[in-house]
Amino acid sequence: MNRSKFFLISLLVNTIILLFFLFIPNFNYLKLSIFALLILNLFFLFILIGLKKEEIITGEEDFYLKLDKIFNLINNPLVVYDKEMKVLYINNAFEKFIGLDKKLIINFKIDTWIIKNEKYLKLALIFFPSLTAENIKIIKSGDPDIIDISYKNEIFISIINTKVNYNKKEFNLKIILDHSQEIKQNKQSLELLDLLAHHLRTPLNQLKWLIEENKELIDKSIYNQEIDIINRALFLTQMIILSRKTEEGDVNVSLELNSIQELINSCLSLFKSSLEDKNIKVEVYLDEAAEKFYFDKNIIFSIMLALIENAIDYNKPNGKIIFNINKDLDRNYIVIKISDTGIGMSEDDLNNIFKKYFRSNEAKEIKPIGFGLGLYLVYSLTKAHKGNIRVESKKNIGTTFILEFPANKEIYNL
């Protein structure tokens, strides 16, 4: 019986007794009847309080039962806790992730002492990341807020913090996205690629030297194609090695006063036969104030080479590649725009373009072989060089990459 039904029954009984009072002529009987009514109402009150407690217990059990049915369908670990930091619920995935029995965690009050106990390491990382994690990155603030954390190159997780409301009560909820296995596998793949790249560089350079030494015996067009292929293979090995360095945060920026015009010309020379094959014209518009500035020649060369290769591979025959290089005097930045007249990209592709290993379906059709590291590396190297990068594109019209680098070396604090 619920509280509302019981309340109506008690009200009806009280009404009948009160009506009965109208027909009691004896005053002593009337007093005795009123006393009996008070006792009866106290009895009703105790039962009502008992029903309220039963509803609270039943309500909480119903709440956790619903949580268990829903949240155990989710593969991601999650935990519900109150404002006193007492754990109220964890799903099976959370139990497996922290490696502790669910019975030990439910009603467990989280406190900072767990930081000192290796047994509770993952709980400490989840609840006190600022005190335990080695790296923390805020992805989103507000409700929900999302942070990425890592620990000893072994644990890589995202934590989503939000709130849930039930029966006029508010509870805290954490959802864990575990990337550890994926990142470890990626690192192993990069280590293998890095090893292969180092071993390939020597024979590729030897082959290049051999061809150049005997170029008089080789047809000129064939010679150009061979050198182009070797240079691109060497560039790929360089990209793989740099990719590994960016993963480990081992990219050192060495600044010198260099000419951006000379660097672009050097890059374009490596793709001479490819440009001729597709009859792609290159136009360079350079502001004199931007011609020389302080930059790391190897880093900017790698960035330009990757962007030029893309502008050729995904361009249309008889297309164009246009460079616009200017100095933003207000912000004291060098702005480099590289535009092509190629296949362009969709909105979804633009949102993923700088992600590691990402390649659009159109890109795979045009160039089936590829690692999806080029633009990821371009983004990482640009950031390492204190720069910014963004992209604008329209399907079947073309793409423009916009790079910005500091015009003065003082900003690098080297």
Structural description of this entry:
With 414 residues, the protein is an alpha+beta fold. It folds into 3 domains: 3-71; 78-178, Beta-Lactamase; 251-412, Histidine kinase-like ATPase, C-terminal domain (Heat Shock Protein 90). 49% of the residues lie in helices and 22% in strands. It is built from 14 helices and 13 strands. The chain has a 6-stranded antiparallel β-sheet. It has a 5-stranded mixed β-sheet with strand order 8-10-11-13-12, covered by helices on one side. Strands 7-9 form a two-stranded antiparallel ribbon. A hairpin with a 3-residue loop joins strand 12 and strand 13 (398-406). Helix 1 runs antiparallel to helix 2 (27-71), helix 7 (180-213) packs antiparallel against helix 8 (220-247) and helix 8 (220-247) crosses helix 14 (374-384). The chain is elongated and about 80 Å long. The chain starts with a helix and ends in an 8-residue tail after the last strand.
DSSP summary, beta strand count: 13
Query: Sheet bearing the most strands, described?
Result: 6 strands, antiparallel
SSE series: HHEEHHHHEEEEHHEHHEEHEEHHHEE
Note the gap between the termini.
76 Å
Mean pLDDT level: 79
For this structure, what is the CATH homologous superfamily of the largest domain? Histidine kinase-like ATPase, C-terminal domain
Question: What is the spatial order of strands in the main beta sheet?
Answer: 2-1-6-5-4-3
Shape: elongated
CATH topology of the largest domain: the name is Heat Shock Protein 90
